[in-house]
Amino acid sequence: MKTIHVNGEVKQIEMASLACLVRSIQKDTSGLVLEYNGRIIREAEWANIELYDDDVIEMLRFVGGG
Amino acid sequence: MDELILGGHTFTSRLFTGTGKFGSRSWIPKMLEASGSQMITVALRRVDSGGRNENILSFIPENVVLLPNTSGARTAEEAVRIARIAREAGCGKFIKVEVITDMRYLMPDNWETLRATEILAAEGFVVLPYVLPDLVLAKRLEEVGAAAVMPLGAPIGTNRGLDTRELIAMLIENCTVPVVVDAGIGKPSHAAEAMELGADAVLVNTAIATAEDPAMMGRAFSMAVEAGRLARIARMAGTSVEARPSSPLTGFLD
């Protein structure tokens, strides 16, 4: 088990990669913006990122706004 | 309409629009087509695993310039972070700096906005700061590299029109960067009034998005913006208290 932070919440996870984590939270990944430890990661790279304790992940998306 | 150049981009429409508050997002492309608007705002939020999570960008045609906003930011640092993420995510170099801590009137924090504008302009962003119309602040924003200033007409979503008319007029008369009236514009006549006053563009979201037919309302705003702009360029006649006849008063029946 690893302890990570996702969108400000502490999560205990067993997934190995960023790609697995993202898909467990959001099935529809279109337009998803992923920040991993302060760095934007493109979707093609998600599978190559291995997760470690204390990683900080922000999952963001563009929404309607004025 | 005459062109507006902003951040190296040429706009032939002086109506900027927003993506908030549409009952159905499928109205967005219809509204953009009907209004001819060439710039539209979007916001960035954390994914809500249980909520509505459609990708708003998929509703915006590629030829429309994206203007991500920094809504949600309470400090300059938060605004800068949102701007950097938006650019990294492929939203281009335009950014509407919006820093708000007052939740009753959603008044922009002019000081934090100035700080964020300075940082982002130095990083190459085309910065459009949303501000309370204050001439001294507007001149400072110009100095630190703002591409335009966006004074509010009235608080966001109030539809009250140009409550700040005289203060906006000071900005228009004295700023060298474009003045874009943002927030409070509730109907096409308000937009025409802003353009007659000399605004370079207006940004309208609520009044279009919450109309029963947002596409038709977008068209109505576009016509009002064009009418106001043409009236400004054509130079309007002055006003007077006493009547001035438009027909000759002598030469018949006298």
Automatic annotation (TrEMBL), chain A:
Q: A Pfam family matched by this chain, by name?
A: ThiS
* Annotated Gene3D superfamilies: 3.10.20.30
Q: Which CDD domains is this protein grouped with?
A: Ubl_ThiS
The record's annotation in InterPro entries points to: Beta-grasp_dom_sf, Mopterin_synth/thiamin_S_b, Thi_S, ThiS/MoaD-like
Q: Where is the signal peptide?
A: none
Q: Which top-rank group of organisms is this from?
A: Bacteria
Q: Which SUPFAM superfamilies match?
A: MoaD/ThiS (SSF54285)
NCBIfam families in the cross-refs: thiS
Q: What is this protein called?
A: Sulfur carrier protein
Whose protein is this, by species?
Answer: Desulfopila aestuarii DSM 18488
Automatic annotation (TrEMBL), chain B:
Keywords in alphabetical order, please. Answer: Cytoplasm, Schiff base, Thiamine biosynthesis, Transferase
Chief location category: cytoplasm
Describe its function: Catalyzes the rearrangement of 1-deoxy-D-xylulose 5-phosphate (DXP) to produce the thiazole phosphate moiety of thiamine. Sulfur is provided by the thiocarboxylate moiety of the carrier protein ThiS. In vitro, sulfur can be provided by H(2)S.
Instruction: Please give the pathway this protein is involved in.
Output: Cofactor biosynthesis; thiamine diphosphate biosynthesis
Catalytic residues of the enzyme: 96 (schiff-base intermediate with dxp)
Amino acids binding 1-deoxy-D-xylulose 5-phosphate:
157, 183-184, 205-206
The entry's localization annotation reads:
Cytoplasm
GO biological process entries = thiamine diphosphate biosynthetic process
Which chemical reaction does it catalyze? Answer: [ThiS sulfur-carrier protein]-C-terminal-Gly-aminoethanethioate + 2-iminoacetate + 1-deoxy-D-xylulose 5-phosphate = [ThiS sulfur-carrier protein]-C-terminal Gly-Gly + 2-[(2R,5Z)-2-carboxy-4-methylthiazol-5(2H)-ylidene]ethyl phosphate + 2 H2O + H(+)
The source's domain of life comes to: Bacteria
What does the subunit comment say? Answer: Homotetramer. Forms heterodimers with either ThiH or ThiS.
- PANTHER family noted in UniProt: THIAZOLE SYNTHASE
For this record, an example GO cellular component is:
cytoplasm
* Family recorded in the similarity comment: Belongs to the ThiG family.
Q: What protein name does the entry list?
A: Thiazole synthase
Q: Which GO terms describe its molecular function?
A: thiazole synthase activity
